[in-house]
Amino acid sequence: MKSYILAFPLSKIEEMFPNRCIKQVDLDGLKVGVTRIEEEFFAFESTCPHRLTSLIPGEISESKEVICPLHSYRFDLNSGAVKAGMCGDLKVYPVEMDEAGLKISIPEISN
Fold first, then answer.
1. Would you state the pLDDT for residue 110?
2. pTM of the model
3. Per-residue confidence (pLDDT) for residue 106, from 0 to 100
4. 36: buried, middle or exposed (CB in 10 Å: 19+, 13-18, 0-12)?
5. β-strands 82-84, 74-76: how paired?
6. Beta carbons within 10 angstroms of residue 59's beta carbon
7. 73, 55 in Cβ contact below 8 A?
8. CA 79, 88, 107, 60: dihedral to nearest 10 degrees?
9. CA distance 28 to 10
10. Beta-carbon neighbour count of residue 10 at 10 Å?
11. Degrees (nearest 5) of the Cα angle 11, 57, 101?
């Protein structure tokens, strides 16, 4: 796993990641969606596995799912499991918040 730390003033966390809004971050060319639900952070691939539509303009449900704006497919933010729709699961990435910032871990791809 390769880890990336998004360092920023921790006092600005709510401003940088508004509750239930999706932001896209670029981690060495990999586009990742990041959202915050209260004190919990989630990171996931930024495109829907169904039609590769961007999930960034999607919504976050009350049951911690990201909802694709194209066909309303739903994906569990903890596991990536598809909850509504017929396609593969969404890749989700471990996220950790500490005094250094927001750490996102991405599995390294071997050729």
1. 55
2. 0.93
3. 95
4. buried
5. antiparallel
6. 16
7. no
8. -50
9. 23
10. 13
11. 25
How high is the pLDDT of residue 99? 84
In this structure, are residues 68 and 50 in contact, taking their beta carbons and an 8 Å threshold?
A: yes
Q: What average pLDDT values come out for the chain (111 residues) when binned by 10 residues?
A: 87 88 96 96 97 97 97 98 96 92 86 51
For residue 28, what are the CA distances in angstroms to 24, 41, 91, 93? 13, 20, 17, 15
Position 12 scores a pLDDT of 84
In the chain, alpha helices (H)? 13-16
Asked if 61 contacts 73 with a C-beta cutoff of 8 angstroms, the reply is no
- The pLDDT score that the predictor gives to residue 72 is 97
> Given this model, what pLDDT does residue 13 score?
83
Phi and psi, residue 7, nearest 5°: -90, 130
- Cβ 92 vs Cβ 104: under 8 Å: no
